[in-house]
């Protein structure tokens, strides 16, 4: 088998390993995600329900009162998204490292970081982030082409590790700002039901209307600062 074929096989092996890792991670950690969400959305206004003392108490209470389905609320969208995202992440990460390794024996920490940033830019938040990444890349390449008077066919030679890291961070920022409201809606749907077992929100449209009515535009971006810093 040729070196190119071996490289392609290695990349897909990494993608498969990433997908399996994403599946396993969500399967084992999703109950903790439900608990985290319920702690986050608790605004103290509901007083007729016993509070969760800590994480173990929350897990036990949810399992006892809502059963297995309560612990895995919203599991299917989470596991599909995580499996696909991690699979694609490691595929693009492998491709980026291969490109940076063309004329080098070993990658520096900076180039590993650039590979990771580039892979993250192409995966998280899907098409939105990919589109932002490509459009920003065109702008940077066009600007550097004029400065260096090189042809557009030498685009890879025009961008350095800092450029790729910046592109990754900028496109990620754009995608987060556009998709964050959907995360707020999902979190509010995962809130614990009332004492009578009636959910606070009936569906996504109900969350959208109630949030806009009582909290306005800012309600859809609660916690955005912490999320931006994390990413």
UniProtKB/TrEMBL annotation:
- Its primary localisation, in coarse terms, equals membrane
List membrane-spanning regions.
Answer: 74-92
Fetch the Gene3D superfamilies from UniProt.
Answer: Mitochondrial carrier domain (1.50.40.10)
Q: Which GO terms describe its molecular function?
A: nucleotide transmembrane transporter activity
Keyword annotations for this protein, in alphabetical order, are: Membrane, Repeat, Transmembrane, Transmembrane helix, Transport
SUPFAM superfamilies recorded for this chain?
Answer: Mitochondrial carrier
Localization per Swiss-Prot or TrEMBL: Membrane
GO cellular component entries: membrane
Give the membrane topology, semicolon-separated if more than one: Multi-pass membrane protein
Per-repeat ranges for Solcar: 9-99, 159-231
Report the superkingdom from the record.
Eukaryota
Q: Name one Pfam family in it.
A: Mito_carr
PANTHER family reported for this sequence: MITOCHONDRIAL NICOTINAMIDE ADENINE DINUCLEOTIDE TRANSPORTER 1-RELATED-RELATED
Q: Indicate the family of this protein.
A: Belongs to the mitochondrial carrier (TC 2.A.29) family.
Protein name per the record: Folate transporter 1, chloroplastic
Protein's organism: Escallonia herrerae
Organism ancestry: Eukaryota, Viridiplantae, Streptophyta, Embryophyta, Tracheophyta
């Amino acid at each position: 088998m040729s070196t190119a074929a071996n490289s392609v096989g290695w990349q897909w092996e990494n993608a498969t390993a990433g997908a399996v890792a994403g599946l396993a991670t969500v399967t084992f950690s999703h109950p903790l995600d439900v608990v985290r969400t319920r702690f986050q959305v608790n605004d103290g206004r509901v007083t007729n329900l016993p509070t969760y003392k800590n994480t173990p108490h929350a897990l036990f209470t949810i399992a006892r009162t809502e059963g297995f389905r309560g612990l895995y609320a919203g599991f299917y969208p989470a596991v599909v998204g995580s499996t696909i995202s991690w699979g694609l992440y490691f595929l693009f990460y492998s491709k980026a490292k291969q490109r940076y390794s063309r004329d080098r024996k070993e990658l520096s920490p900076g180039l590993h970081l650039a590979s990771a940033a580039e892979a993250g830019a192409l995966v998280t938040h899907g098409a939105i982030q990919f589109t932002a990444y490509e459009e920003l890349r065109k702008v940077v390449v066009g600007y550097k082409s004029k400065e260096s008077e090189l042809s557009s066919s030498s685009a890879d030679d025009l961008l350095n590790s800092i450029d790729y890291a910046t592109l990754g961070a900028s496109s990620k920022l754009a995608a987060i700002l556009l998709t964050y409201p959907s995360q707020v809606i999902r979190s509010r749907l995962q809130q614990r039901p009332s004492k009578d077992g009636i959910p606070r929100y009936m569906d996504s449209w109900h969350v959208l209307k109630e949030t806009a009515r009582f909290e306005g535009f800012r309600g859809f971006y609660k916690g955005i600062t912490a999320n931006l810093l994390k990413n």
